Amino acid sequence: MMMLMMIMSRRMILRKRTMMLMRRRMKRRRRTMMLMMRRRKKRRRRMMMMRRRRKKRRRRMMMMRRRRTMMMMRRGEGDDDDEEEDEG
Question: Does residue 79 lie in a domain region?
Answer without folding.
Answer: no
